[in-house]
Backbone:
C-alpha cells in the first residue's frame, strides 16, 4: 500500500491528493488507523463510493465532519472524465472514451448479453506488446494506468447505464500482467464485498502470456479467472501475432499454464483469434486439439474483426466451419465468440485512442 501517515497528511498541505479509488479495503483501513480513526470507517467510505455512487466526501453523512474534511483535503474520488460515448446500432454495445488527468485517453466497452452485463476495462494507455492485429498495440506504450484509473471506468459506466455491470474482463487497452500490481488491486476492489461485490469467477484477467506474472498469480492464489491469448499454434505464428512470444515462448507458456491449472485447480480459457489464411487451416485446428488436450481448459474462438489499422482479414465462414468441425471432438469446451460493437470499433483488437492523434 502507499505509505501514508497521519503526520504527513496533516502537515503536508501541498501534497498531491491521493486517488482513493486506488485503495483496497485493507489499504484504506490502514490509512484510517494511521489517522487515528476506527478501521470500520473504511467500510462506510467504500459503501458511499461503490454502493451509493457518491462522488463527494462532503455527502458522506455518517462520517464525522473532521474526517470528511481530512478526506477532502487529501483525496480525490474521480480521476477520469467521460469525453464521448458511442452506442452500436447492431447490439447496443457502448464504447466510452475517457480523458485522464494528464490528457491521455483510454476506451472501455460496456456489453449486454441477456442478464449478463460485461465491462471490458483498459489497464494501459497503448500497449508495449505491439501485437500487429491489435489497434492498441500500434500506439506503443504511453503509460500504465493507476489502480484508481482502472476502477473509475466501472464507477462512471455503472452510473451512466441502467443495467449494472455483472462481469469484468481485463481485455481492453493494455496487457494487464505488465501492469500486474495495479490490475490485481483493481480486481480486488471490483470483488470486495463492501466494494463492487462482483464475484471473483465473474472477473477475467487476460494475458498474452507473460510467464513470470502467470507464476506469480498462481503462487499468490488469486481466484479471478485467467485467460490466455493463444492465437497461434507454433513459433512462426505466435512470433508474428504476439511479439512477446520471442521472450516467453509457447512451450514455456504452456508449462506455466499447466502449473496454474494444477496448483489452482481451476480451468483456464484460451482465446484464439481466427485470421483468414493465417491460423485457420485444418492442420492448425489439429494442432490445437493435440496441444490443449491435457490442459483443463475452454477454448474461445474469436473470428478476427477487420479494422482500418491492420492488414489481417476476417476468416471466411467456410474456414471457420472447417476449423470447428475438426475441433468438434476435442476433450475441452469450445465457444465461438463474436465480438460486440464492430460498427463502433469496440470489438476485440479495435480499441485505439484516435483522439490521441489530435
Ligand atoms: S492484443 Fe493485448 S497484448 Fe497485444 S497489443 Fe493489444 S492490448 Fe497489447
Residues:
Amino acid at each position: 500500500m502507499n505509505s501514508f501517515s497521519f503526520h504527513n497528511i496533516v502537515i503536508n498541505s501541498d501534497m498531491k491528493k491521493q486517488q482513493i479509488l486506488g485503495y483496497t479495503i485493507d489499504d484504506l483501513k490502514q490509512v484510517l488507523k494511521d489517522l487515528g480513526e476506527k478501521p470500520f470507517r473504511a467500510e462506510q467510505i467504500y459503501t458511499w463510493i461503490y454502493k451509493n455512487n457518491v462522488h463527494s466526501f462532503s455527502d458522506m453523512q455518517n462520517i464525522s465532519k473532521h474526517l470528511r474534511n481530512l478526506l477532502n483535503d487529501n483525496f480525490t474520488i474521480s480521476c477520469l472524465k467521460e469525453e464521448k460515448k458511442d452506442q452500436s446500432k447492431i447490439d447496443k454495445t457502448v464504447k466510452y472514451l475517457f480523458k485522464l488527468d494528464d490528457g491521455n485517453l483510454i476506451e472501455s466497452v460496456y456489453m449486454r448479453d441477456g442478464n449478463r452485463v460485461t465491462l471490458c476495462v483498459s489497464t494501459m494507455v497503448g500497449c508495449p506488446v505491439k501485437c500487429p492485429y491489435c489497434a492498441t498495440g500500434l500506439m506503443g506504450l504511453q503509460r500504465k494506468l493507476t489502480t484508481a484509473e482502472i476502477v473509475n471506468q466501472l464507477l462512471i459506466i455503472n452510473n451512466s447505464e441502467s443495467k449494472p455491470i455483472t462481469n469484468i474482463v481485463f481485455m481492453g487497452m493494455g496487457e494487464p500482467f505488465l501492469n500486474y500490481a495495479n490490475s490485481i488491486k483493481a480486481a480486488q476492489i471490483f470483488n470486495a464485498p463492501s466494494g463492487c461485490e462482483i464475484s471473483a469467477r465473474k472477473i477475467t484477467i487476460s494475458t498474452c502470456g507473460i510467464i513470470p506474472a502467470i507464476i506469480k498469480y498462481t503462487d499468490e492464489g488469486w481466484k479471478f479467472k485467467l485467460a490466455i491469448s493463444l492465437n497461434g499454434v507454433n513459433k512462426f505464428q505466435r512470433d508474428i501475432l504476439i511479439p512477446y512470444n520471442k521472450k516467453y515462448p509457447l512451450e514455456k507458456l504452456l508449462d506455466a499454464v499447466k502449473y496454474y491449472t494444477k496448483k489452482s485447480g481451476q480451468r483456464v480459457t484460451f482465446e484464439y483469434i481466427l485470421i483468414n489464411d493465417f491460423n485457420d487451416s485444418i492442420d492448425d485446428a489439429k494442432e490445437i486439439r493435440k496441444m490443449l488436450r491435457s490442459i483443463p481448459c475452454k477454448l474461445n474462438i474469436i473470428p478476427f474483426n477487420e479494422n482500418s489499422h491492420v492488414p489481417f482479414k476476417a476468416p471466411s465462414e467456410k474456414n471457420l466451419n472447417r476449423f470447428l468441425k475438426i475441433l468438434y471432438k476435442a476433450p475441452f469446451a469450445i465457444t465461438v465468440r463474436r465480438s460486440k460493437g464492430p460498427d463502433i470499433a469496440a470489438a476485440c483488437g479495435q480499441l485505439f485512442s484516435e483522439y490521441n492523434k489530435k
